[in-house]
User: Fold these one by one.
Assistant:
Number 1:
Amino acid sequence: MQATERKLGRVFHLRFEAGDDFYGEFNRFLKEKSIRGGSVFVFGAMNQMDMISGFKSMKGYDVDRRHFGDWRELVGLGNISWPDKPPAALGEGVTWTEPQPYVHIHMAMSGAPGRNEEVLTGHLSGGLVKGMFADVYELV
């Protein structure tokens, strides 16, 4: 095991508005505030959502990408980093000329309205907000 001591920096509470592009707004905020690392907790609902699930197998990554066009509630926990190159989870063909914020969120989401028995877990890949907040804990 390896350990790195970090300290809690700034703490932000973000309230997203209906129709916001979640990652578009979130990444803009991270750049504006120069948050280079931290943890994030999200809670709310999205009108549209993209999710990635999968695992690493002997053949490489077995990835399942899904789009949901009906609104769903979600709760998620993740981390914020600025890698030098785009992570594989962003898909093929994504290129950066400089490091960018990467927010990796593990989430659980509800089924569509009236389908409470369908609960899914995975990684939040994108979406349009219905109503949501995020708490950001900067680590320095």
Number 2:
Amino acid sequence: MRKIYFILFSLFIYQTVFAQPKKVVADKIIGQVGNKIILRSDVINAIEDYKRQGMAAQLPPNPECAFLEGQLIQKALVLQAEKDSLSLSNEEIEAALDNQIRGFIQMYGSKEMLEEISGRTIYQLREDFRVPFREKKLADMMRSKIVENVKITPAEVRAYFNKIPTDSLAYYESEIEVSQIVITPKANKDVEEYVIKQLYEYKRQVENGQKRFEALAKMYSEDPGSKENGGMYNINRTEKFWDKNFIQGAFRLKEGQISPVIRSKFGFHIIQMVSRVGDDAVIRHILRIPPITDFEINISKQKLDSIRQDIIEGKISFNEAVNKYSDDEESKFNGGAKVGPDGSTHITIDELDKETVIAIKDLKEGEYSAPLVFDDRGTKKVRIVYLKSRTEPHIENIREDYNKIAARALDEKKQKVLEKWFNDNLPTYYITIDKEFINCADLLDWWQFVSNRKE
């Protein structure tokens, strides 16, 4: 049983939107586990979606065989989850459907564009997604249940490592652990008041019919993500990445209404409600960011210099200082640590922005940089950087790379437990596979259960 099942779900979701215009000729059932069927179109569309997402080079040999195996695995897990009465609430499914639909709307710019491209209404798309979402969730829950008690001991990690041929050991580039405390300089009150007056003037011009909101947004908004489309966003009340003040201010509005000036972590806004259905809305906004002068930047540098000195003198720990002073929401709650795409705090130099690389160039492990000014998406900020650790390039070894090795060893152990579970349980399932897949090497384990099944 291979791991391909675990990459399939997103592809089967995307096929609902992208594959509608292309029909599969002579669609038929090519596999079945219990009462769960697999259609040829399921597999073909999933492969095409994989290619459309730029991953054609990552397709396994004989992709139809591999993708069919993935679906057989998922169906078996779903059947067992239903047999074990694993609990899955309608609220969980509805929340997942809402997130998926919002993601597609954001991708295509509007609900109308999504419906035009897919040839389906939002209601129809939700219904199309319902069964795949439910099956994916149930399969994940069943897999977690099967391996929930699998643990790994240090002795097993060493045994796993010792089996790796010397010429197959991984080579690791230099990795670092780096954290930061960030302060965003506050604009002068007089400057803020001037920006607020400008926004109220834009509001007056729209309400008096002198200007259109979208025209003013294109001219004056400082939000690069929406400026060119007239300040428009599709938003949802429950989405966490929106600024709290921004989302609350938007959902107080009626259609066509314009908000008073709202302060967010990005600056000052006025928001126009275009349309709203429940927790979903289409809005336009104009963002103005009060300019920061050298005076405000120097105040922030002085504050950070004082914080740095307190850390060095042991008056406060770095983590405590992050929690108390840092304005960086992405790292504030993990000790200010920079993380890589996999969520690890051990990252390579090329995963850092250029300014951080310069900041740590002359630092030794355990040292803190002087306060440094940097640009964060058009906003001037100040930070101190802490270099926690730096490894030299090296061949994988148990001392320096224990956690990575242990994670791989645990994955292998879980995979063996899953394979045993399938070998023990597949003989109890009704399984059919179309004979056109008789020569698929990926399906050898499955064919023995089809051929041994009593008619």
Number 3:
Amino acid sequence: MLWEEVLSGLANFTTGQALMMLIGGVLIYLAINKGMEPVLLLPIGLGIILANIPLSGVHDEGDGIFWLLKEAGLRTELFPLLIFIGIGAMIDFGALLERPLTVLLGAAAQFGIFGTMLLALALGFPLNEAASIGIIGSADGPTSIYVASILAPDLLGPVAVAAYSYMALVPIIQPPIMKLLTTNAERKIRMSTGARSVSKTTKILFPLAAIVVTGLLAPKATPLIGMLMFGNLMRESGVVPRLAGTAENEMVNIVTILLGITVGSTMTATTFLRQDTILIFVMGILAFSIGTAAGVVFGKVMCHLSGRRVNPLIGAAGISAFPMSARVVQKVGLQADPHNHLLMHAVGANTAGQVASAVAGGALLTLVLGVL
């Protein structure tokens, strides 16, 4: 019987499955040897390998491990929402509240989502798939997974892998765009370090206000914003330190493991090796690039209107790749002026981008579900 199973497994092993295993191995290599988003690329890579072993039963309806995880965590949108609680518990919105104008940079950087969605529509993708591809430009893995799992479950694998892969490549993708769109003199602009103090009461009221305002303006964004701000409220209230600590540590770690390996399991040879997948990856990097460029261009507008008191580089942090994008802004700024410190200004734009990406995801869901 064992020998028959071996022969059956080998007989059903296809070239496509071998290629997918190779892709999974590449992701694991990038995670271990290059340190590129290892907490996600490592489980995603292993999930790809496991999912492409023939006759393994991992996808069997009813009792296959990956079938159960997809039903429980992805189709219910549970995993990305739990991740958002952990993210909220990690984020300090103080930099945003100290510099409220940076919210405009977070909003501007979401242009990559809608610009790429229009391009996908022009290329012939249906509206639900075009929106799922565009959301890659949010630079927000959980939001990308949440939107794609509702609008286009068949594209969940490539959308998620593209989103997290490009998040890992932020230090490579963003600097050339930032330097192309700004002058050396603009990159040297020093911003005032003085900022208004933010009271504890303000930090507590902010997540509550964000939930109500966002819920009324973009109801479909309520689950994302609600979970994000729930985590933040636990952090800022100071009365549930154990819950906040669990949310940003144990819970988010466990869910990240399950999310990563489940997303990887969706990337089987039959669903991934298609021409559309290549287009998704190409448009994904375009979405990232457009979002970065839109943020920097709007930063230049703010620079001009403020009398050169705003360094346009901080606009690049308007995408939701927190905190990597803010660190990239700091690095590029220091290259122009070793004594220029833009980090806190960039963090304000970066946290604004985190909120804006969730709102944009809800807006897409409202738009698309209203049309379909």
